[in-house]
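Could you help me review a protein record that somebody else here produced? What it holds is a sequence and that sequence's fold in token form. I need someone to confirm that the token line plausibly describes how this chain folds. Take the sequence as given and treat only the tokens as open to question. This is what I was given:
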Amino acid sequence: MLIGVPKEIKNNEFRVGLVPSSVRELVANGHQVIVEHHAGAGIGFDDSAYENVGATVVKEAKEVYRVADMIIKVKEPQTQECKMLREGQVLFTYLHLAPDPQQTRLLQESGCIAIAYETVTNRNGGLPLLAPMSEVAGRMSIQAGANSLEITNGGSGILLGGVPGVAPAKVVVLGGGVVGTNAVRMAMGLGANVMVIDKSLERLYQLDLQFGSKISTMYSTTDSIEHHVTKADLVIGAVLVPGGSAPKLVSREMLKQMRPGSVLVDVSIDQGGCFETSRPTTHQEPTYVVDGVVHYCVSNMPGAVPRTSTFALNNATLPFALALANYGYKQAMLQDTHLLNGLNICKGKITHKAVATALHQEYTPAEVMMA
């Protein structure tokens, strides 16, 4: 199979779909890899690093899209990239289609086979290709929140961990999954007063066993969210509906009750955000203020630490990329139903139920497209 790796073009996105070691593995398995000029420059790999492991480097993205059987990326294809995709071409990347009807329509029109990292599953019901970036984003959310709390950045001027004689900041984490757990670990390590709110009693029990009395846990209801969010200095939005839109847990009315200079970090923004007042931002302009509350809603947070993020992502995606290349997408998916769960769009049809539901579109089961 001929595999293409274009350079990412989303705002301040420096990650790359394949690192040289992953390319070497694909080449060793008998595949060809074509890489766009400077695709790995953002993480310290020049073109020669790819050529030395057997890849062919080309000058422009259109050359990659024109010849590749499978495109491996990191972020969802931008409009101009969608228009370069062609019928029957496999696209393997993050998609986050639920809040993005335009991208969905363009992918349908292209006739490509779009496999989303974020909906591939494993035998435990987890999301193995989303987890690495969730770990990074969860840890980064506390860094971003602590920075946003500084007075020069619009915050209330609170140090997350406080000092002897002065109380630490109150941090509320909405969601106890991978993002939430990593956010808790970082906030707790900095000495903050941490509360986790989740609707799963089993997950709250696990967090209690893991962190003990160093954190507090609370079952999620509208009342508990309002009570704790309105008193928080920093709120981390870490909820996830796989493939679907994030629920709006914090309303504008709750926001108005928060102290001016408080901070919201919405890690769920890729799926539409879990705060009513959320809208996507970039690393270039990461924050905005609504009713005196600072919002950090960068839609590609791990892109700020691209080297760590790219290696973590490649560790998870490489086995699936090899399967797709070795067997072709149909055979690979027939052999692995977890990979089949990653199929979001196939030859014009929406094949993930949560995506179709969020966009109010017709749903075609992925199994039907594999018949």
Observations:
- The chain has a mean pLDDT of 97.
